[in-house]
Amino acid sequence: MNEREMELWEQYPFAVEKISRVRGAFLCETKEGLLYLRETGSTEKRLRWENRILERLEEQTGIPVDSYIENKEGNLLTEGSDQRTFAVKRWPGGRECSMAEPGEILQGTEVLARLHQGLQALSGDSGQEEEKAEDWREELARHTRELLRTRNYIRKKRHKSDLELQILSGFPRYYEAARQAAEQAAGEGMGELLLCHGDYTHHHLMVRERDMAVVDFSHMGWGIPAGDLYLFLRKAMEKHSWNRRLGEAMLAGYQKIRPLTDAERRYLNIRLHYPEKFWKQVNYYYNRKKSWMPFRNLEKLQLLEKQQEQQRHFLEAMEGRGLL
Questions:
Q1: 302 Cβ neighbours under 8 A, 6+ residues apart
Q2: Torsion over CA: 7, 11, 14, 20 (sign)
């Protein structure tokens, strides 16, 4: 443990027995259990609010979650000598959910439905004063404008890289899909805003011996619950080449616990039709230095091209079964 870490831990009322580095943070073993130290840009008010929600959420749903603990001064935020702020969480332990394992994906989907049930029950008196989520309809419209801007930028270049040629090659088809989805979204209502996790991915699902824990609620706020489901479902489908049996099981498993409203189902359908992966790669290209781009980005676009037909068949099948 270096001097800076020692300085931080000395501000807490427990002794660290062992410390190890994990993804951008420190995982520590103490007599009080596993603790997780990470730099944060949150405010004391925000962390207090998270804790109030998480304590009630775990009590209502039985889903293990992480929560913040106070330092010796009774604060959730701890400032280091370099003016950076850190927070310590109780850590439920376990390993990240494997997106290669369908069983774990389905378990994670059911946990999400239970999580949403709990968050929905708490939404009425959460006491949160922060801004609502961005209007998803405007988000899709903005992304579509960004696609067009990037296409126009590439067209003007005299010498084009393989990545740029790949973007131009698939652009007409992806842009038309984006335009149609954004147009459909414009005709929808905003939808009911409830508390959501905000970043529900396998990185924040911890597999334990008998259950799954959910961690990192730093993006928790007001949104459409189907947005969490969309993110988890899309990532799973991309990993499994839009496997219809797995996707159907995910949608059915979620709705067995928490049925989607008609508005949520339409939202999910529109989001899944929008070429999000293509926009992400295009946006990444546009906002990075153009002199060198990782070959991995070209590979991702090529893989996306191969999966287009699989995705189309998946969406048609789910619509036919009334799951979307």
A1: 166
A2: negative
